[in-house]
Amino acid sequence: MGFPKFFSIFSANANNQNGSIQENLIKNPRKYLTFPRSVFNYLGLGRLAVSGNKSDGSQKSEEEEKVYSWLYALAQSDKDLVFEYVRSTERGLSFTEADRRLRENGPNVPLGYTFPNWWHLLWHAFFHPFNIILIILSALSYVASDSPNGCIMLILVFISVSLRFYQEYTSSKAAMKLSEFVRCPVKVQRCAGRVIQTELIVQVDQRDIVPGDIVIFEPGDLFPGDVRLLSSKHLSVSQSSLTGESWITEKTADAKENQRTPLLELKNICFMGTNVVSGSGMGLVVSTGCKTYMSTMFSSIGKKKPPDGFNDGIRCISYVLISVMLVVMAIIILTDYLKSHDVSESVLFGLSVACALTPNMLPLIVNTSLAKGALVMARDRCIVKSLAVIRDMGSMDILCIDKTGTLTMNHAIIVNHLDSWGSPQEKVLRFAFLNSYFKTDQKYPLDDAILAYVFTNGYRFQPSKWSKIDEIPFDFIRRRVSVILETESNASQGRNSHTCDRFMITKGALEEVMRVCSFIDNVDGSELVTFSSEDYQRILNMGEELSNRGLRIIGVAIKRLQMQGSHPNMANEEITESDMVFLGVITFFDPPKDSAKQALWRLAEKGVKAKVLTGDSLSLAVRICEELGIRTTNVTTGPELELLNQDDFHETVKSATVLARLTPTQKLRVVQSLQTAGEHVVGFLGDGVNDSLAIDAANVGISVDSGASVAKDLADIILLEKDLNVLVAGVENGRLTYGNTMKYIKMSVVANIGSVLSLLIATLLLEFEPLTPRQLLTQTFLYSVGQIAIPWDKMEEDYVKTPQKWSEKSLPIFILWNGPVCTLCDLANLIFLWFYYRDYNIFDVKFFHSAWFIEGLLMQTLIFHLIRTEKIPFIQEISSWPVICSTVVISAIGIAIPFTQVGEVMGFTNLPFSYFGFLVVLFLGYFTVGQVVKRMYILIYRKWL
């Protein structure tokens, strides 16, 4: 079913329209905007016609416009027209017609999100630029009859891909278990057929509901689609899944709507995903599946997120290294061939140089670092669905948080019980307690708060001495609940033999309670005072002041009933609830979590700014933020954002710390504004359906295991406990992962390019290869193995304190500054060998290969310690023990190889001990020059890694 062409119903030539009512509106939605303005305004669409002038913060998509138009038309039309629009009857659909519509429309599933299949995860893990480079080099190595080298590179690719695939596949399976679809039965009225005039009430799975079905709902039921109410009785609905507001909403079938009513405030329309809190009713399903308001609202889910600076940077490095690799390979192959006239040997040497230029371990180092971070977060009871998000957490500088249940405990507590003058009064609490204790209608969270407060604070109100006579349940017209009680002593006597002291106790919305009061309880307990207009305004002002503090208020009143015999007639509620005595008010507050303030303070210390995005009222959000220490100097609301142009919208979002009364689409636009206009890396923490858009769009989407299914489906991280301190650890871990990855990237690219330039120069100057292909590959392999410990290295405290982002310009500049230092070190070695060991015969190939092998390996191993810190290595800052051990072991192996039989087989020879003395001096000089270059670089660019 689509959207019916309700415009044509009011047209004189409606019968001449071709096709179904619905098809024409879908195919030509703009065609009907030429109708007379009177008809247009009648349907409540006037304000939608000018929506094209709205700013970024309030524009609606074409699909949203269709849904808005459709629902407004239904809300303002009589029931007979509504049945005609959806082609249904008051008896409901027949089973045959319902089956036909189900086949036509498909299952009633609002969102088509599915978890990625295992082969998608495998492809994502495999498709990395350096994996592709390694596979190409491996293939070329096999072609050149160098299978050991090709095998090593394939093993590196296999380990890297397997590690990432295993972690993401395991996390995906865990997330799927948390997000399994729960099938909900729905009561539906259907007719047996056209001949048999019988209506049947049947249970139908929510997935099988179709437009035109008549559904019957009771407390606790979810609406299976967008529903136009046909009848209702004291119906209250929770729309928190769409709005984020924690309070319930009144709905009634007899409401008369107008064009200025916000969509979610339409009284006779109930939306898919919302649920019945109290009351009952019957409604006509007008939209299902992807045509509902909720689905259209989430139509942007799954769209591409903002570009990932890190991955873009890796891609850029890949292209640069491939270009350099091809040029250097061509030069070296040509040069070597001119000397040796051996094509196979020259190609093999060129491939070895290309392998040395490639950061072979980058995929493995990155994936190991990310997997290690995911395991750390798993110990903190988090499910990390995407490994890349660990790195994004290190770059995150803004965390947007939904208030309800995240910053707060998600249950109300009593703050004060005050008389009409604002002074504490226990009498107010006592009668409110008796009302909540004896009411048999559904107990709301405020009732639970009153009962818990009395029982936990030791009040002795002795409810056993009271007995209940009758009750007027809560409804959304009166917005109050009343009970009639009498004392036990009087109740024990015959009711018809004496006059009983009975009390009517009423509590509810402040204005509605005051409306039935004629007296005020005097402060000194003396005679009652008449409720004057001045008293009414004074109490109203007091209530407004308390509301502005973020408190919720209810009024309490009583009435002493003096009567003989049976209890009063409860049929006339207006007469019974009258001439009451106003006692005072009770204030409630949803308190912040104890851990939230500490976590937000720790995040602020690390450069992560918190912004509260909520659907609740501004005063309540401000009160929570003040309790948590969040600045509230710049605040705004959703309706205010609607009025702003694009530039003002971006500026307001940038400066505001509290944004209240936001719709789900406004939350999405706030996140997108921060990403694009502010160039921030944004995280969003929420647990409701109303948060799903923002969770999906954020760089780091976070939900909780108790959250809505769609929120968990779209989140990158699922918290098994609602504790913000886990995010603090995640941010630290993300920056550690990012830092260690950047260490390897910068170190490997600098060392590899420096060494390859040295090899190129040596190849041009010498009559033989500086190293044979086997020796060069062995050197590269040992150096690569030595880097496996990098994910277990530590970072300096100053680095972890600030968000870390990829800079496109920083790496080329870093290479230009530090690469030549490595080349100079190699050239110094070449000059020393040329002049000092001339008598030792520099042209002794084995001698030169042994010296060049050891110096190159030690230089590439030690350069990590120079680059990993801004400070002086080994003096002011020392790396972690795994890195130290790895450096020592690889260096020892490299030095020992020329003195062993393995070295003899590889073409090495023993070296004099004087050469190792030279290496000590050489590397001291290298570290000195490198440290000077480092200080100059930091002085100019204000950053090292």
Automatic annotation (TrEMBL):
Reaction(s) the record says it catalyses: Mg(2+)(out) + ATP + H2O = Mg(2+)(in) + ADP + phosphate + H(+)
Topology relative to the membrane: Multi-pass membrane protein
Enzyme type, top EC level: translocase
GO molecular function terms listed in the Swiss-Prot or TrEMBL record: ATP binding; ATP hydrolysis activity; metal ion binding; P-type magnesium transporter activity
Main location as per UniProt: membrane
E.C. number(s) listed in UniProt: 7.2.2.14
Cell compartment(s), UniProt: Cell inner membrane
Keyword field: ATP-binding, Calcium, Cell inner membrane, Cell membrane, Magnesium, Membrane, Metal-binding, Nucleotide-binding, Phosphoprotein, Translocase, Transmembrane, Transmembrane helix
TM region(s), chain numbering: 121-141, 313-335, 347-371, 744-764, 776-792, 813-837, 849-867, 879-901, 913-933
Family designation: Belongs to the cation transport ATPase (P-type) (TC 3.A.3) family. Type IIIB subfamily.
Function: Mediates magnesium influx to the cytosol.
PANTHER family: CATION TRANSPORTING ATPASE, MAGNESIUM-TRANSPORTING ATPASE, P-TYPE 1
Protein name as catalogued: Magnesium-transporting ATPase, P-type 1
Source species of the chain: Populus deltoides (Eastern poplar)
Classification of source organism: Eukaryota, Viridiplantae, Streptophyta, Embryophyta, Tracheophyta
